[in-house]
Amino acid sequence: MLNLSRRALLIAKRDYLVSVRSKSFLFGLIVFPVLFGGSLLGVAILKAKPDLRDRHVALIDRTGKLADFVVQAAAAKSAKEMFEKTTGVQISPRYIVEPVAPEPGDPNLQRLALSNRVRQGELFAFIDIGASQNAVGRSESVEGGPAKASIACYTNAGAIDKLQAWLSGAVNDAIKTQRLAEAGIDRNRVPAMLAVAPVDNLDLLTRDATTGAIHEPVKRDQLAVFIVPFGAMMLLMMIVMVGCAPMMAAVTEDKSQRIVEMLLGVATPHDLMMGKVLAGVARSLTSSVLYVTVGTVALIALQVSGAAPLSLLPWFYVYLVAEVTMLCALSVGLGAACNSPQEAQNLMLLVLAPIMVPVFLMLPVLDRPNGPLAIALSLFPPFTPMLMVLRQAMPGGVPLWQLWVGLLGVIACSLVGVWAASRIFRVAILMQGQPPRLADIVRWAVKG
Amino acid sequence: MAAVEIASVTKTFGSVTAVDNLTLTVPDGSVYGFIGPNGSGKTTTMRMIVNIFYPDSGSIRVLGRQMTSARSEHIGYLPEERGLYRNMAVKPLLEFYGELRGGRSVSAEVDRWLERLGLAEWSSHKVQALSKGMTQRVQFIAAVVPEPKLLILDEPFSGLDPVNAEVLRDAILDLRRRGATVILSTHDMRVAETMCDSIFMIFRGRKVLDGTLESIQARYGNDTIRVSAEGGAAVMRGLPGVEDVRDLGQVQELRLSRGCDTQQVLRALVSRTRITSFSVTKPSLHDIFVRIAGAPAAEAASA
Asked: What residues of B are in contact with residue A252 (Cβ under 8 Å)?
């Protein structure tokens, strides 16, 4: 099924050389990392240059007891965090809480006025604390306010702004202090009593096979737990995309420009298809040399090379070749069924599904990499390459039997994919006129 | 030995029977013309010979053996629908096709053919820079390098000007002189009459003619008069014994009914007009083609 004849190799050589010399290949080679790297760079730049404008927050304290605590907490936070200690450079905005007396009558009128001040940029946000917030263990709704929120923060800022999180903490600290005072407990003793005992996340212990010594467990950091698996999966996705993305449109173009019949006069449809698949694999491997080299150099430059297990690389390449073979065959088969690049575009989703769906499933797999869901999903052949690489790159890795079972599944799926695509290709490549229907494509794949 | 032996071959596409129980033998070293209206099954037959389509039933032997892809190194194929990689330069493109078919370097042969067909100075140009005539010549070279034992040409002269057509015609006949068997399809009956040793006509998937031009014409006898006269076709209509008048402009062809006396027709014509030429002849291939394919088409049009 995957036998490579002399003609298939010759077709692969031509397609490969033409594509890697094209501007679109070089452009794609650069665009993917620029898009991914650019977004990371953007986040880094935004983090390095935070918005340092003062944050003015109005506070309506209907209890009459909490405002002073919050104002002091804001002043203390600004004094502590606003400037870098050694250089004196401002690194964080000043938090300024302005108490506002509650106005009689409809509270929404006052809230509307404050909302307008937020819209005009005078305020960053305003907080409305209900009258009974100091009652221990209870809270009551602010009259006319949201049904379930007795402390409400009104703002038009982004959901992940740090100030909102801090405000919530500061108001709650004030409430707790008030409640402790009402309960007759010395507030100054509480922090020490409730101090958090830090828990270190460590890797499992291992025994050296030769010396028998037990290795000291390594502390798990965020780089190893999230960034490395995420990066490995994204790297695989980029490389697969470079090989597969142009394939379907290229086959459709060959068909619409009537190039295929001349080739079929000298090569079998299987030779022609395998040549194109092989060219796709070669294109992916070419891009992988660049991406893997640059990635490795970057990790070494950042002095975090230890976080990326090099033992992952052989499996990474095995899954890469299997994934590209499977998707290129699918692209060639579906491309043959299309009459124009527009029709090919409509079927592109089918080809991209095995690499896009695992990205959407990434969070539950990251959450429990060896849970039943993660194992089941990563042994489903279309998703195996992406999810297995993701799991493998996480601390703890994947049991060896799962790697082999996954690989066997992917190889079987690739063989079936190549076989089905070959049948679709043979029937459809000389057909003109009718747009492809899914029922026809399935029939061609099954019956030939 | 037969270059191609087709035995009881049928090919259907869904509910359409493209080729129906066809049996045909193409002798080695001959030029065989495939004629027939559009959609009659010529291209499907050629694609089955080249192994692009597989027959539903029957068998095809090419160059003495069952057709497989391995045999294609001896077969040159020029499809009706022209298409080449537009971004490739002419010579690398031809070397690619030649190596794909022959499995060896064909650089010298490519140079020779480019020189012969007047394309040597275009060898480093991209295909997209060529005119239509030049592109067709390039595609012809792709079909004949390395030199094939069997050359299959689907409408090789379609769209070519007389000069380019003559160049291609000479090249085809030269290949035949060197031993190649040539199968060509054409809608130009003059090409079929003058180039082909044998002619095969397929109509609605069935073989309706097969043989030399002489044997085909002999089936119809001397039932045609070619006349040139004052008044043209108008004065010839309604003549006794004349079934059909075909106006060719300066000359008219009269088809006679069976048993009609040509002297009677001549006398009737002389009584009507002044005649400048008169000859009794066999029907042309064009006339035979129209008699076969035209009648059902006319019936379909009037229904």
From this structure: none
Contact assignment for B100 to A268 by CB distance below 8 Å: no
Q: How confident is the model at residue B284 (pLDDT cuts 50, 70, 90)?
A: confident
Round to whole Å and give the CA distance between B158 and A99.
90
Domain parsing of chain A, residue ranges: 52-185, 221-447
**What tokens were used for B1?**
């030995």
Q: Is the pLDDT of residue B202 over 50?
A: yes
| Structure-model confidence comparison of residues A425 and B193, the more confident one | B193
At residue A36, does pLDDT exceed 80? no
User: Mutating which of A4, A266, A422, A432 best tests the B interface, going by the most B Cβ atoms within 10 A?
Assistant: A266
Asked if B139 and A262 come within 8 Å (Cβ–Cβ), the reply is yes
Cα–Cα distance measured from residue A412 to residue A339, given in angstroms and rounded to the nearest whole number: 30
ipTM of the complex: 0.81
Q: Is the pLDDT of residue A336 over 70?
A: yes
CA distance A289 to chain B (A): 27
Best residue in A14, A260, A262, A276 to probe B by mutation, most B CBs within 10 Å? Answer: A262
Report residue A171 as tokens: 């108001």
Q: From the CB of residue B88, how many other CB atoms can be counted at a distance below 10 Å?
A: 17
Supply the CATH classification number for the domain B222-281: 3.30.70
CA angle, A47 as apex, A41 and A49 as ends, to 5°?
105
Q: Domain boundaries in chain B? A: 2-217, 222-281
Query: Which tokens is A99 given?
Result: 């108490």
For the segment B72-91, the average pLDDT, to the nearest whole number, is 89
Per-residue pLDDT at A227 exceeds 60: yes
Architecture of the domain delimited by B2-217 = 3-Layer(aba) Sandwich (3.40)
Helices A269-301 and A228-244, packing angle to 10 deg: 150
Q: What is the pLDDT of residue A186?
A: 79
Shortest CB distance from B83 goes to which of A6, A257, A268?
A: A257
pLDDT of residue A14: 92
**B2-217 and B222-281, same CATH topology:** no
- The residue behind tokens 């090569």 is A267
Q: CATH class for domain A52-185?
A: alpha beta
**pLDDT, average across residues A168-188:** 82
Q: What are φ and ψ of residue A100, in 5° steps?
A: -125, 130
Q: Which of residues 135-164 of B touch A (CB under 8 A)?
A: 139, 142-143
Q: By mean pLDDT, which of A205-219, A294-308, B218-232, B273-287 is the weakest?
A: A294-308
Q: Which of B226, B238, B243 is nearest to B291 (CA)?
A: B243
